[in-house]
Amino acid sequence: MKIRQSLVDSRQPSVKRSFFIIVFLLFTVHYSLFTAFADDDAARIQKAYENIKDIRGSFVQKSHIKDLRRTDTYNGTFLIKKPMKMKWEYRGEKPQEVIINNDEIIIYQKNEKQAFKGRFDRVTYGQAPIALLNSFGEIQEEFYISKKNNTLLLKPKRPMGSIASIEIEPSDGEFPISSFIINDSHSNRIEITLKSISINTGIKDSIFDFSLPKGASIYEHNP
Q: Is 157 domain-assigned?
C-alpha cells in the first residue's frame, strides 16, 4: 500500500507540469490569434486610407470629465482633406468652429465672437479629438496595436499630448471606422461616433481658409 501511494505521489509533479504547459500553450495560441486579428484590422484600415483623398460626415461626441463627474454631449459636422486640412463645427448652445490648415489651428467661438490661433502638432491632438481621424492613415506606424473585445486598442508609440490610449470600433463599410474612444492620462474619456460618412467628394482647399467675422477678435498663441 505504501509503495503504491509513493508511486502516485511521484507522478503528481509531472502531472502538474503537464497541466501548466498545456495552459501556457493554449494561452500562447490564443494571444497569437488575437494579435493576428488586430493586425488584420489595422492593415485593412491603413489600406483603406491609401485610397482616401477627403472625408466628410457628421459626429456625436460625448466627453466624460472625471473630476467634475460630468458628461457633455456635442454634435456637428466635419471635413478632412489629406494630408493635413481639417474643419469641424460643433452645434448647439455653444457653437464652435475648429480649422486645421497644415501646422496651424484656429478655434472660433461664435457666441463670444473670439478666435484663438496657434500651432498644431502632436501635442494638440488631445484638444482636437476629431483630428485623430487623419492620423489613422498611418495606424501601424503611429501606434502599438492590440485587440480589446471587438475593438482595436491603440497606444501611441510617441507622445500625443495627454492621450493614453485609443479604442477603435472598425466598420465593414467603405470608411473603415465607425467610432473611437480617447482615454487620457487623467482618466477622462471622449467617445466619438461617426455618421453619414462620404469619401472623395472633391473638397476644395478654400473651405479651410478662415475669415474672421466682422466684430470678432483673434488671439494668437506662439509658444
A: yes
Q: What does the alpha-carbon distance between residue 146 and residue 182 come to, in Å, rounded to a whole number?
A: 15
75 Cβ partners below 8 Å, 6+ apart?
58, 59, 60, 61, 90, 91, 92
Q: Give residues with Cβ within 8 angstroms of 44, minimum separation 6.
A: 170, 176
**pTM (two decimals):** 0.78
For residues 187 and 69, the answer to whether their CB atoms sit within 8 Å is no
Q: What is the span of the domain harbouring residue 151?
A: 48-220
Q: Say if 5 falls within a structural domain.
A: no
Number of folded domains that form the chain? 1
Find out whether 150 and 178 touch, Cβ atoms under 8 Å.
no
Task: Report the CATH number that the domain containing residue 115 is assigned in CATH.
Answer: 2.50.20.10
Residue with the three cell numbers 507540469? 17
- Residue pLDDT, tens place only, 9-26: 545 555 445 544 443 333
